[in-house]
Design goal:
Strand content: 5-15%
Strand order of the largest sheet: 3-2-1-4-5
Number of helices: 18
Low-confidence stretches: none
Bound molecules: flavin-adenine dinucleotide
CATH topology of the largest domain: Serine Threonine Protein Phosphatase 5, Tetratricopeptide repeat
Number of strands: 5
CATH architecture of the largest domain: Alpha Horseshoe
Oligomer: single chain
Shape: globular
Structural class: mainly alpha
Order of helices and strands: EHEHEHEHEHHHHHHHHHHHHHH
Mean pLDDT: 94
Distance between the termini: 67 Å
Number of domains: 3
Length: 416
């Protein structure tokens, strides 16, 4: 069987069940992935490019390489040399459209490769509770983790594909040379290898996991939270493998509330995936899954000030500067800037979600849109009218102003 494997949100060789299936099935195999999109911010591109480069290097070890295609190339690709295409399932609108188009041209085998659960413990997805806690309590009790799956040692030989653009990982990944900001809370590289290293450091070497619940609302530095979301977003790491590592740590080293809390947060990620299954396109609609009519002020100038850190709210501005200059923002920061955009500036929440989509190195379609709806009050928040008072939040979480001074908007003197 001649197989083409299309990496989409699974940029890894380890614990990748679909890839292992494809390798077992194939007599010859070829690999491809899409290049980054032009509208993405440079930090998102950099992390993505580094992850592709790492994937290519890891494939090289098995005598293979990664073909790099633009989205137009994927549409033009000829499948006459292949019997079958394997690609992970991503059911969000754009990704699903591409998948359906491919299915018209070639036999496709596709399955979810980014979740903790294969199925829900409800008779229908419509029974998924709208409150996270109810979902978590139900699923975590009966959750059984399957063992990790590794690729076979012997790989089938490669098959050439006609790559219309002739792009190469070594030559055409442009953003890799970009130097991280010296204050960046995310100075890590993209890719499977760096992701595995981060888990080892955070869990086993430095044992930061032992204090995770206490530090996770932090704003400054590498270690207040796991920083695993960018690796999860591109599938450099699997959620199941991280969950296994937490349990391994709990079994062999120590178990406490903090170690448990990493699993708790992974359930949030999981939850938003199933929220999408239930509500589909409503996750992207202005009135949200709750269907609450929105009457924002569509003021482009104020939106520009929010993006550029020019609102004169020093806590919001510092967070927005951090995002623009690094592609990263803490969870506490995201909650505050999102609430400020919607509740203080009365701007459309979906403008903020779209901006995050382009900028965040950990952009994940379900987590981003699900969280934005939550903060905007049109999603899964059971509490009506939740409001983040950004001044109070700054006083609690940035008591000494360290974060604000690190990312302050430079003052322009009247002479300038
Ligand atoms: P940790 O605190 O170490 O948590 C461990 C893992 O749990 C994370 O890597 C992530 O996979 C998951 N997780 C934690 N909190 C959440 C949450 N609230 N929702 C879903 N999963 C969670 N997360 C993304 O991965 N991609 C996004 O595009 C994204 N957009 C967001 C937009 C807004 C407005 C808000 C409020 C939150 C958003 N989040 C998003 C969730 C959260 O902010 C990040 O997952 C988290 O800050 C990543 O840092 P970490 O890996 O150190 O997380």
């Amino acid at each position: 069987m001649k197989v083409l494997y299309y990496f989409r949100n699974d940029f890894r060789l380890h614990d990748n069940p679909l890839l292992t299936k494809a390798l077992i099935k194939a007599s010859k195999i070829s690999f491809m992935a899409q290049k980054s999109h032009d509208h993405w911010g440079k930090w998102r591109k950099k992390f993505y490019d580094e992850s592709l480069l790492c994937l290519n290097q890891n494939l090289n070890r098995f005598g293979h390489h990664l073909n790099l295609l633009s989205s137009e190339d994927v549409q033009k690709l000829k499948f006459d040399t292949f019997d079958i295409l394997y690609t992970p399932k991503i059911n969000a609108i754009h990704e699903d459209r591409e998948y359906r188009e491919l299915k018209n041209r070639v036999t496709v085998i596709s399955e979810y490769n980014d979740r903790l659960l294969e199925t829900l413990p409800y008779s229908s997805v419509q029974d998924l509770p709208d409150v996270f806690t109810e979902f978590r309590k139900k699923v975590e009790k009966s959750f059984l983790l399957s063992p990790a799956i590794q690729p076979p040692k012997n790989w089938p030989p490669s098959l050439k594909i006609s790559n219309p653009s002739g792009l190469h990982c070594e030559n055409d990944l442009n953003q890799i040379e970009l130097i991280p900001h010296p204050n960046s809370a995310f100075p890590f590289k993209g890719g499977e290898t760096a992701g595995i290293e981060r888990v080892d450091d955070y869990f086993f070497k430095n044992k930061n996991i032992l204090t995770y619940k206490k530090t996770r609302n932090g704003l400054v530095g590498r270690d207040y939270s796991t920083k695993l979301s960018p690796y999860l977003a591109l599938g450099c790491l699997s959620a199941k493998d991280i969950y296994r590592k937490v349990e391994d740590f709990e079994k062999n080293i120590h178990k406490n509330q903090d170690t448990y809390w990493v699993k708790f947060e992974l359930w949030w990620r999981e939850y938003f995936r199933w929220v999408y299954e239930k509500y589909q396109i409503k996750l992207f609609m202005k009135n949200g899954i709750k269907g609450i009519p929105q009457f924002p002020n569509k003021d482009e100038d104020t939106f520009f000030q929010w993006k550029e850190g020019l609102t004169h709210n020093s806590f919001v501005d510092a967070n927005m500067n951090e995002l623009r200059l690094t592609g990263w923002m803490s969870n506490r920061g995201r909650q505050n800037v999102a609430s400020f955009l919607v509740k203080d500036l009365n701007l459309p929440w979906w403008w903020g979600a779209e901006y995050f989509e382009d900028q965040l190195i950990d952009y994940d379609v379900f987590s981003n849109w699900g969280n934005w709806q939550y903060v905007a009050g049109v999603g899964n928040d059971p509490r009506p009218n939740r409001y983040f008072n950004t001044h109070k939040q700054a006083a609690v979480y940035d008591e000494n102003g360290t974060f604000r001074s690190l990312w302050a908007t430079p003052k322009v003197s009247p002479i300038d």
